[in-house]
Amino acid sequence: MKNDGVLHPYSNARALEKEKRLIITEGDGIYVIDSEGRRYIEGVSSLWYANLGFSEKRLADAATRQLNRLPCYHAFSNRITDVVLELTERLLGMAPVPMSSVFYASSGSEANDTALKIVEYYYNAIGKPDKKLIIGRKMGYHGVTHAAASMTGVPRNHMGFDLPSSRVLHVSQPDFYKFGKIGETEEEYSGRLAEELENAIIQAGPERIGAFIAEPLMGVGGVVPPPAGYFQKVQKILDEHEILFIVDEVICGFGRLGEMFGTTAYDLKPDMITIAKGFSCGYVPISALMMNSKVYEAVADGTDKNGVFGHGFTYSAHPVAAAVALEALNIYEELDITKRVQELGDYFQTKLEDLRKSPIVGDIRGRGLIAGIQVVKNSETKEFFEPSQGAGKIFEINTERHGLITRALGDVLALAPPLIINKDEIDDFICRLSLALVDTE
Ligand code: PLP
Fold first, then answer.
1. Which among 276, 263, 212, 268 has a CA at the least distance from the CA of 242?
2. For the chain, which residues make up each domain, given as ranges?
3. Which residues line ligand 1 (CB under 6 A)?
4. Helix (H, G, I), strand (E, B), or coil: what is residue 336?
5. According to the model, what pLDDT value does residue 387 have?
6. How many CB atoms within 10 Å of residue 196?
7. How does pLDDT run across 331-365, given as a tens digit for each residue?
8. Cβ atoms within 10 Å of 142's Cβ, excluding its own
């Protein structure tokens, strides 16, 4: 097939010229249907966002109602819409730690990009203009705009670009299975990582480090839950050196881990939180950055000094997106989503454990309705595949042949079904996955 006119995100454009497209034409609950009529379980909720599946009429109706009432308006200067005011009150009311202000955008990248700009604005406003370096983590994922991609620690997001910026440092990711030493406990491993973080801060000079950004559970970096004690140790170091903590809840937020936010799941104390994806279940794009009063008050003083907060997207606080997000929050509440994900998540994670019998499954980890399967050449000797062998990709292709869409992240297969999945569907999911695993062995 020739180029279809689209430069596909995350593609090898040359290789794609010879590949068949998977054209998705319809959605139905946890399923998507392709142009040839094949049904697939969407095992990663599209890109980790379709928490309520692909045919939630109430979300479509909320969008239609708003489109008919007021299809677009903005929030620049003193303008605002009623629906955005309602959403803001709701969001601040459910924030996992006290938050005092929300900035809206359309994507996770824009929210994280804004977080970096707020770090600058904050330190300029409080008279510490040198304290602006950001610490991210290798394999951490925060998006693809220039600033967000710099904070991202995934090499393929830097390749071919002039990234990352020297304003961002990256410390090791907390992947105990891959990097824990023989005989080391998780807690000791976390101690080692905390020491590395502290050394990085001291080396750069604490007076130059403005913020640390992290996902509660790493998604794109291989579905990695934090090892025991990790965030407690990190938080202590951040407090000691007065470093702001930005928690990227773009995947974890809105029930994925069996808590409304990853912040609650791991007892984090962020100064800023970014959200997207499950906020509107992806039906329309919306993201947000919440900030606590310490950050907001300094930023507000800065706007007074500068005369303006010179930041805002045309589609910041879009009323149609806000209406859909509000309805999603209503549905989450009615479904008692955290309880539901805790119960179904336990069932899902227990069922997945059966796959450990496979000689190529090294690790299975996750929480709630997100999991990662680390494939290895030999699970007993813990020998890893060479990246060039593309084992994760082969596994992904095999699941697709069995009617289950998954996502390979290197040699980890990511699973994150819609949160509306039921027990029978989980059984079907695991059955398809097991068949694909046998094909991959
Ligand atoms: N942060 C995290 C944790 C993500 O997983 C993603 C996307 O996968 C982003 C940020 C970027 O979001 P977007 O693709 O909407 O810009």
1. 212
2. 13-55+336-440, 70-334
3. 47, 107-109, 112, 141-143, 215, 219-220, 248, 250-251, 276
4. coil
5. 86
6. 12
7. 999 999 999 999 999 999 999 999 999 999 999 99
8. 33
Whether 148 and 165 have beta carbons less than 8 Å apart is answered as no
Going from the Cα of 143 to the center of ligand 1, the distance in angstroms, rounded, reads 5
Which residues of the chain have a pLDDT value below 70? 1-2
CA separation for the pair 166, 413 (Å, rounded): 32
Q: How far apart are CA 299 and CA 333, in angstroms?
A: 32
Nearest in space to 168 (alpha carbons), one of 133, 213, 144:
133
At residue 8, the pLDDT reads 96
Give the pLDDT of residue 388. Answer: 85
Under DSSP, is residue 322 helix (H, G, I), strand (E, B) or coil?
A: helix
Q: In angstroms, what is the span from residue 358 Cα to ligand 1's centroid? A: 32
- Tell me the pTM: 0.98
> Which structure tokens are listed for 347?
């069932």
Question: Which amino acid, 212?
Answer: F
Give the residue whose CA is nearest to atom 13 of ligand 1: 108
**13-55+336-440: what fold?**
Aspartate Aminotransferase, domain 1 (3.90.1150)
Q: Under CATH, what is the fold of the domain 70-334?
A: Aspartate Aminotransferase; domain 2 (3.40.640)
